[in-house]
Amino acid sequence: MSKKILIVFLSLCFIASNASYAVQGKAKAVQKKTVKVKTVVKKAVKPAAVKPAPVKVEKKVQAEDQDKVSIEDQVQDVKDDTNTAISNLKAQVDKLASDNSDIKVGSVIFFRWQKYLSNGGTNVNNFDIDRAYLDFKKKLDWGASARVTLDVARISTSLDTTKSTQNLFDYLKYAYVELPFNVSLLSQFVPFSASAKIGLQHTVWIDWADKMLNLRYIAKSLTDNEGAMTSADFGVGLTGKISPLNMPEVEYHATLLNGSGYKAVDADGKKNIALRLNSTIFNSPLGGVILGVFGSLNGATPSNLTGDTNQDGAMLGLKSDSYTFYGELLNGTGIKGYSVGGIYEVLPGFKAFARTDEYDPNFNKANDQIDRVFYGMTYDWGKDVKFSVDVQNATGGSAASTSAGKTTSVLYVHSMVTL
């Protein structure tokens, strides 16, 4: 019995063992199939190229961005090169323009018609050119400048017997160079400027005095009109401004000139030493109050610095945009004179003016004093064209047409054209 039980038990164990083995084999087979399925799925997913696609797109985009950046850089480089070239060209053009723009060429013409109203002699009614100036100005290196001015007028045969007074001739009126000095160290104490003038240049007084009424095309100022001083001469000068602290600015003009004037050659070696000081001493509601004074030692030599003769004068004026009034005094060795006048804007562009002069060229000579009266109306056509209708009277003097007790009266139409 026990043997049968043992055989049955062993048989059951064998069957169980085989069954377990079969189950494990089936499990392994299922696992293999699962792995294969996973592998197949993976292989199936790979061909779809889901993941690699974005990588390729990103690389393409990056390449396009790099190309775009490269093109933009090239365009910017071209722009920079173009701007640089344009800038260089502009600098050259500006330099060329600057080199030539500082050459200023100008001209002024004084034209007039006159009719004698009394004591006119033979020239009772005619047209003429009183003056024509051709002016050339050039800026030089280091702040220097040069000026050449030709004056066109009728030259008297007493000055040049080879020329006829029937023709107009040109001659040098100004020809000088102006050289500024560097005075920065000295000007720390009293601010001032200084420039040297060398050549045929203005004398100290006439050019400045003419600007008071600014009617040079109608009549010269007292000193020039009476021949008491020449308007230009050969020599050296010094001009500038002095600006004292809390005081009005002062202009100065000093000269060492031949004394014979621009119409003659120096023959005696003597020189004229002169100085002018002028300033707008204060500004008021009525206008600026202008004061100018000058002194001149004429015929000076190293052994006689005081000169043979002397002159001095002063001018006081009140100047505004609509009117100007002034008084001038002139004194000197054997001479004296004065001038008083004014100009007033009555309408836009229209101004009325009047002036009276008295001059005695020689204290020791009787009946040579001359009195002059100027009056009329001016019209500014524009800044470059001006007209006037005026009357000029002269009484006394040594000339035949203005002998003692006689009055010469002339009606004028004057014009000034600035080119």
List keywords for this structure.
Porin; 16-stranded antiparallel beta barrel; 4 helices; 419 residues; alpha+beta
Characterise the protein shown here:
This protein has 419 residues and is α+β, with helices and mostly antiparallel strands. It has a single domain (102-418), classed as Beta Barrel (Porin), CATH 2.40.160.10. The chain has helices spanning 2-48, 52-101, 206-213, 222-225, and strands at 103-118, 125-139, 145-153, 169-180, 195-202, 232-242, 250-257, 271-284, 287-300, 309-319, 323-332, 335-347, 350-360, 370-380, 385-396, 407-418. The protein has a 16-stranded antiparallel β-barrel with strand order 1-2-3-4-5-6-7-8-9-10-11-12-13-14-15-16. The protein is globular, with a radius of gyration of 51 Å.
What is the compact description of this entry?
With 419 residues, this protein is α+β, with helices and mostly antiparallel strands. It has helices at residues 2-48, 52-101, 206-213, 222-225, and strands at residues 103-118, 125-139, 145-153, 169-180, 195-202, 232-242, 250-257, 271-284, 287-300, 309-319, 323-332, 335-347, 350-360, 370-380, 385-396, 407-418. A hairpin with a 5-residue loop joins strand 2 (125-139) and strand 3 (145-153).
Order of helices and strands: HHEEEEEHHEEEEEEEEEEE
The computed structural class is alpha+beta
CATH architecture label name? Beta Barrel
CATH class: Mainly Beta
Strand order of the largest sheet: 1-2-3-4-5-6-7-8-9-10-11-12-13-14-15-16
Tally of DSSP β-strands: 16
Overall shape: it is globular
Parts with pLDDT < 50 across at least 5 consecutive residues: 19-23, 29-50
- CATH topology, by name, is Porin
Average pLDDT works out at 83
Number of domains: 1
Relative strand content: 35-45%
- Distance, first to last CA: 158 Å
Report on the biggest sheet.
16 strands, antiparallel, barrel
Please tell me how large the radius of gyration is.
51 Å
What is the percent of helical residues? 25-40%
